[in-house]
Fold:
Amino acid sequence: MRRRHQGYAARRTIFLGLCLLSLAPAGCHERSDLDRLISGGSAAYMQASQYYDRLGVITVEAWQNQIAFLSLAGSSASPEDQDIFQKRVDALSRRSSMARALANAYVSIGSLRSPDGLNSVSTAGKNLGAAIGGIPNLPGASAAATAPIGQAAQFLAGLKRGSDAHKALESLSQAGAYQNDLFVHERTAYIAMEVDRDETADRLLRQLAGAKLVNPSALLRFLHLGVPQEAFPDNERIRAMALSASSVALYRKKTAWACATENTAGTLEITATQTKDLATPNSSALNQLDQELAQAKTCMSEYQILDVDK
Amino acid sequence: MTPKPANSFDTAVAALLAQKVQIENNLLSLQAACVNDSQRKALADSYHSAVAQYETALTMALVTNDAAVQSNVGQISTIQQQVQDAIDQAAAIAGILNKIATGIQIGTSILKMMAAA
Structure:
């Protein structure tokens, strides 16, 4: 038992030593996690903003599909119909703006933390270092005796930046929690908007192909057969095959969008939770934030590739 | 400032979507079954209404939370200004550090003069 205690004490001493060596102003572990939260949070909100921007484009395209379908039905869109879509585009734009504002706020907090973002402080620190370096040795003292003065100045500057970053993040905590709640509560609608555009287009295509008003054989390119569209005759079997290929492409897009939605929701939740619990940063949660962010970006990229091929 | 949940969206909007999808899946066959222009117009009007109802419901899922979103954007902008102020305050440290550096440089000069004397 005593040996075990000694082992713990030794590990603790090593840990404290590493903390002192790094001259962390607000705690060895916390500083690194705080910086990770600031950069990860900024990236998460920027990802959310891009997600909303993409959803805005999807909404405009859904409107185009709907106009085409109304036309096929012998009707036409009214100004009220357009107003419904315009309100949706505006609402998405506001959500994008909110996410971008949060991302920018995190970037600002990051610059508060980063010496690179505070050039004047950095320059002043260098001036101080140079001044200290120019001090001749005092009788009986070594040059090393002047080093703590510079270290103390850096420590105090870092402490202030750390404290300001904490205060700024705390003030953003409520806004971040709201952004997270909003996304969670509306994500069913976000997924439905994407599905609305694609499935409306798919139903329109099936109606047109069924009435032989369009030849869907170009959709066989999704099978990567290496055969040009002109090689396919316009007959029942080819149409059925082309529409099946379209269904698979549609499924892949829905899956990619749902993946981007869920992972974006995950990044917002972790960022909001970690910002709220600043006093107890959690490294494993920040690791998960990195993973979900990477996954959200991958899914969004895959979705965009599939969307271009539609 | 809790967002209004879209839980009811799943049930209410699903019914509106089903109505729209049903007409879209059968539009041309329904049109073919119409025997006169009056029936064709009734079909077109019904479809138009189905579309408008569904798309309105989808938009309402967002619009109900919009006032709170706008208010939040304003608050974040205010906070960002406060962060900028904090950055400016932190930059003021530069002045303090520079004054310390000046004091040390003067002290160095004094020491050098003393050493030369």
